[in-house]
Amino acid sequence: xxxxxxxxxxxxxxxxxxxxxxxxxxxxxxxxxxxxxxxxxxxxxxxxxxxxxxxxxxxxxxxxxxxxxxxxxxxxxxxxxxxxxxxxxxxxxxxxxxxxxxxxxxxxxxxxxxxxxxxxxxxxxxxxxxxxxxxxxxxxxxxxxxxxxxxxxxxxxxxxxxxx
Length: 164
Hints:
β1 and β2 (137-139) form a beta hairpin. By secondary structure, the protein is mainly alpha-helical. It is built from 7 helices and 2 strands, in the order ααααααββα. The termini are far apart. It has helices spanning 15-18, 43-54, 59-66, 70-79, 81-107, 111-121, 150-162; strands at residues 130-132, 137-139.
């Protein structure tokens, strides 16, 4: 049977209550590890995230750069939408730069750049869908374009691929 507490008992202040927040021991996680101190999101950090994204780092790499776990990173992104905005803005800046360089090459008549653009943006393929009627299989078709003018070669290639 439990004894009743004396009504005159008062809770005394512990030494821990006198400590500043910096001096207090950090709490433990369920696994017994120390919890990470929260990192404040500053304008400098947002700018750095944008810069890292513009240099080609993905979300996971930026998370690793700061030493966050995946769940912490997702929580930060949820609480601070400016993180995701900075990430997307950095990626868009790089894509814009790459596209402008590709367009320079296309305008210079670089056939590889022209074909790359047509394959990725216009759905072009090197293989025509010719079906061998006897075997009901796709037949491979190879073609050779004999011209030194890359723009003319692209036009011929387009006519072949579209069937016009």
